[in-house]
Write a structure and sequence with these properties.
By secondary structure, the protein is of the alpha/beta class. The chain is built from 23 helices and 24 strands. The chain starts with 7 loop residues before the first strand and ends in a 10-residue tail after the last strand.
Length: 690
C-alpha cells in the first residue's frame, strides 16, 4: 500500500553492513537507524567513508560480493527488504524504489538509445505496454527540461551533456512513479546553473508526484535547498539528526558544527580571510574503530567522558545527537567565537625549496595572454563537406600578476580547461600570444618550453587519472626531481620526497604506497606535491576540489593558501564552486562559450556584478542556510549553452539573456572597463540585478 504523508514509507533499524577484506572485516555501516515519511525529503551528509552510499546500496541490496548485511531491518511499505526473494527485489528496484547515481554514465548503456532504456524500465514492471511507455518517456523527458524530447529520445547517452544525462536518469527514476527516490550525489560534478535546475526539478517532482526523496550529498547548500530533515553520518554511525533549518543554524554535534563552519559562504565572506576552519586529522580506521566517541580524536570540544562511546539520544524535541557534551545541555559556539584553525605551514627552506625566480618582482606580470584562440577541427561528415570547428577559446586577453590568484569560472564548455592547457602548452594555440615570465611560448618548440616547466606547473581535476597507477608515490615525486636534475643522488632525492609529503600533510611512509591506496583528497595532495617538487612560480589548478568533501576541500584550500604565502606562488584557479573561488581569488574571470564576459576584483564582482551571465551564476549558488535560501531571488537560466561549433552572432550569451535586445544579436560587445579594474563585455552592463 502507498503510505500517506507523515507515515513512514521507509524504516531502517539497526542496519549493519560489513566488507571482507584481506586486512580484516570492515564495518562500513554500524547500527544505523532512521525513517523517511511518505512525501518527505531527507538528506544524508558526511565525509567520504562515513557510510552514506553504503547505506543507500544496502537499502537497495546492491552490494558487492565481498559484502554482507550483518544485522538490522530495512522495512519499506511494511516489507523487510532484506528478506525479499530475487523476484521481489526485481519488482522493488525501479518499480517502488528508484536510485539515481552520481555518474549517470555508469547507469546508462552507451550503445543503446535513450528510448530503449526508458521504455525497458517501464515495460519490465508491466505497468505500461511499449507504445504507452514510449509516450510516457517523451512526456517525462519534457517534464525534466530536455528540449525537443521527441527527437532527444532517439539519441545516445554520449550525445547529451552531463546535466542532460542526469535529467535522463531522473526521468528513468520517476518512470514507474516510485514511492521513494534515492539520489546519491546527483549534482556533485555539475555547474551551478545546471545544479540549480536539477534541484528545482527535484522539488517540483517531490511536490507533483508525492515521491519521498533520500538525498545523499556533501554539499550543505544543496541539502538546505531541498531537504526538510538531515541525517549526519560519521564513522559508519548516525551522529546527529533533525530538521534542516535547526540543524544548520544550531548544530548539536561537533562534527556537524565543523562541517558547517568548513563551508565558504557567499553571504558571509570576510575580506582578506582565505583560510577555512577545517577538521584536522582523518576519519577513524574502519578496521580499528575507537572504543569511545569516534570523533573524539578530531574534536575541539572533547571531555574526559568521550572515552566512553555515546548513544544517539534526544538533545531537544525532534533532535538527536551522539555527543556527551550537548546531551549535558551545552551549546556549541558560533563560528566567530572559535580560533581552532590549524597553524599555517612551517616550511623548512633548507630542504631545497625556493620562493621562485628573482627576475620578476611581486605585482609584475608573470603571464600575459593576448588574442588567444583555440579551435578544434571536426571530422568531415561527407567527402566534400566543409570542415567544422569547435570554438573552444575565442580571443582571450588576460594578464596575471606575480603573487596573485586569478579565478576562472563558467559553465562546462566555456573554455576554462582549454585555457589552462594552453597556458601550460599542453595544447598549442590556433592564434594569439602566450608570454610567460617574459618569454613567448605560444609558438615555441617543446625543447624551448621544457626548461620553463620547472617554473610553470599544473594540477589536474582528476588526480587519479594524472598519477601513474604502476608507480609508487615516492617514484612519482622523484621523477621530476631526477628529470630536471634538482637533486644529487638517491639520498637527497628521498629526503626531498619526504619533505614534499610532509609539506602537503602526508606521512613519509606514504612514499611506499600506490595512488589507489589513497582517498580522493589525499591523491589531490599528492598531485599538489608533484607540482611543487620543481619549485614553480605559477600553478594552474584545474578544478582541484570539484569532487571533494567539505572538510577535505577546506584542507586543500588552506594548503594552497599556506603554500602561496610561503613561496610567493601565483595561481590560476579553476572551479565551478563560486563560493570557493571568491574565498581564494584576488581577481575573477568569467568565461562563456570561449569568450570573457567579465573580469573584476573578487569583492567587486560579487558585490556588484555587471554582466547578466555573472548575475545568473551567482544567483544559482546554494547557501547552507534554509532561511536565506527561502528569501533569495533567483535568476534561473533556461537550457544549456549553445553549441561551440556554431556560436550565436553578436553577444554569445544573448540566447539565454533575460535583457537581450536587437543590438545584442548584431554587434559583439567589447570588453570595456566600467569601474576600477572591472571589465564587462555587455551592451547593458549593470542593468540586471540578482
Amino acid at each position: 500500500m502507498a503510505g500517506r504523508d507523515g507515515e513512514p514509507i521507509l524504516e531502517v533499524r539497526g542496519l549493519r553492513t560489513q566488507f571482507d577484506t584481506d586486512a580484516g572485516t570492515v564495518t562500513a555501516v554500524d547500527g544505523v537507524s532512521f525513517s523517511v515519511a511518505a512525501g518527505e525529503t531527507v538528506g544524508i551528509v558526511g565525509e567520504s567513508g562515513s557510510g552514506k552510499s553504503v547505506t543507500a546500496l544496502s537499502i537497495m541490496r546492491l552490494l558487492d560480493d565481498n559484502s554482507r548485511i550483518g544485522g538490522g531491518e530495512v522495512v519499506f511499505r511494511g516489507r523487510d527488504v532484506l528478506h525479499l526473494t530475487p523476484a521481489g527485489l526485481r519488482s522493488l528496484r525501479g518499480g517502488e524504489i528508484a536510485m539515481v547515481f552520481q555518474d549517470p554514465m555508469t547507469s546508462l548503456n552507451p550503445v543503446r538509445r535513450i528510448a530503449g532504456q526508458l521504455v525497458e524500465t517501464m515495460a519490465v514492471h508491466g505497468k505500461f505496454d511499449r507504445k504507452q511507455a514510449r509516450a510516457r518517456a517523451v512526456e517525462l523527458l519534457g517534464r525534466m527540461g530536455v528540449s525537443a524530447p521527441e527527437r532527444a529520445i532517439d539519441s545516445y547517452p554520449h550525445e547529451f551533456s552531463g546535466g542532460m544525462r542526469q535529467r535522463v536518469m531522473l526521468a528513468m527514476g520517476f518512470a514507474n512513479s516510485p514511492g521513494l527516490l534515492i539520489a546519491d550525489e546527483p549534482t556533485t560534478a555539475l555547474d551551478v546553473t545546471i545544479q540549480a535546475q536539477i534541484l528545482e526539478l527535484l522539488r517540483e517532482l517531490n511536490a507533483d508526484f508525492g515521491t519521498a526523496i533520500l538525498l545523499i550529498s556533501h554539499d550543505l547548500g544543496v541539502i538546505a535547498n531541498v531537504c526538510s530533515r538531515v541525517i549526519v553520518m560519521y564513522g559508519g554511525e548516525v551522529v546527529e539528526e533533525g530538521p534542516t533549518e535547526q540543524l544548520l543554524s544550531d548544530p548539536r554535534h561537533p562534527y556537524t558544527w565543523a562541517l558547517i563552519n568548513a563551508v565558504p559562504r557567499l553571504d558571509r565572506h570576510v575580506a582578506g580571510e582565505k583560510r577555512l576552519l577545517a577538521i584536522e586529522g582523518t576519519p577513524p580506521n574502519a578496521l580499528d574503530m575507537p572504543t569511545g566517541c569516534r570523533f573524539a580524536a578530531r574534536c575541539p570540544f572533547k571531555v574526559a567522558r568521550c572515552a566512553t562511546h555515546p548513544a544517539l539520544a534526544e538533545v531537544v524535541a525532534g533532535r538527536q545527537a551522539r555527543c556527551w557534551v550537548t546531551q549535558d545541555g551545552a551549546r556549541l559556539p558560533g563560528r566567530g567565537d572559535v580560533k581552532a584553525q590549524a597553524a599555517p605551514l612551517a616550511v623548512d627552506r633548507a630542504a631545497g625549496f625556493s620562493a621562485g625566480a628573482t627576475d620578476i618582482a611581486d605585482g609584475a606580470p608573470i603571464l600575459e595572454l593576448a588574442g588567444l584562440t583555440k579551435h578544434f577541427p571536426l571530422r568531415r561528415t561527407s567527402l566534400f563537406g566543409t570542415v567544422r570547428k569547435v570554438h573552444a577559446v575565442d580571443g582571450v586577453d588576460l594578464t596575471v600578476l606575480k603573487g596573485e590568484t586569478v579565478g576562472l569560472v563558467g559553465e562546462s564548455g566555456c573554455g576554462k580547461s582549454t585555457v589552462a592547457r594552453l597556458i601550460t602548452r599542453i595544447h598549442a594555440p590556433t592564434t594569439g600570444s602566450i608570454r610567460f615570465a617574459g618569454t613567448e611560448i605560444a609558438t615555441a618548440e617543446p625543447s624551448a618550453i621544457r626548461p620553463l616547466r620547472r617554473r610553470l606547473q599544473m594540477i589536474f581535476q582528476d588526480p587519479y587519472a594524472s598519477l601513474n597507477p604502476r608507480m609508487t608515490v615516492g617514484d612519482i615525486l622523484a621523477e621530476p626531481l631526477r628529470f630536471h636534475a634538482i637533486t644529487n643522488g638517491e639520498a637527497e632525492t628521498r629526503a626531498r620526497v619526504e619533505h614534499l609529503l610532509g609539506l602537503v600533510g602526508l606521512p613519509a611512509q606514504a612514499r611506499e604506497r600506490y595512488p589507489h591506496e589513497f582517498s580522493g583528497g589525499q591523491r589531490q595532495r599528492i598531485g599538489t606535491a608533484r607540482a611543487l617538487a620543481v619549485s614553480p612560480e605559477l600553478i594552474v589548478a584545474d578544478e582541484p576540489i570539484s569532487s571533494l568533501d567539505v572538510n577535505i576541500q577546506a584542507q586543500v584550500i588552506n594548503l594552497f593558501v599556506d603554500l602561496q604565502e610561503q613561496f610567493k606562488l601565483t595561481y590560476v584557479f579553476i572551479a565551478h564552486d563560486l563560493a570557493v573561488v571568491r574565498h581564494v581569488s584576488d581577481r575573477i574571470v568569467v568565461l562563456y562559450l570561449g569568450k570573457i564576459m567579465e573580469i573584476a576584483p573578487a569583492a567587486a564582482l560579487f558585490d556588484r556584478p555587471l554582466h547578466p551571465y555573472t548575475v545568473a551564476l551567482l544567483s544559482a549558488v546554494p547557501i547552507p542556510d534554509v532561511a536565506v535560501e527561502r528569501s533569495r531571488r533567483r535568476l534561473q537560466l533556461s537550457g544549456e549553452p549553445p553549441s561551440a561549433v556554431d556560436p550565436p552572432s553578436g553577444c554569445r550569451f544573448r540566447t539565454r539573456c533575460p535583457i537581450a535586445k536587437p543590438i545584442c544579436a548584431e554587434t559583439p560587445p567589447p570588453l570595456v572597463e566600467h569601474a576600477a579594474g572591472q571589465f564587462a563585455a555587455c551592451h547593458f552592463p549593470g542593468e540586471l540585478r540578482g
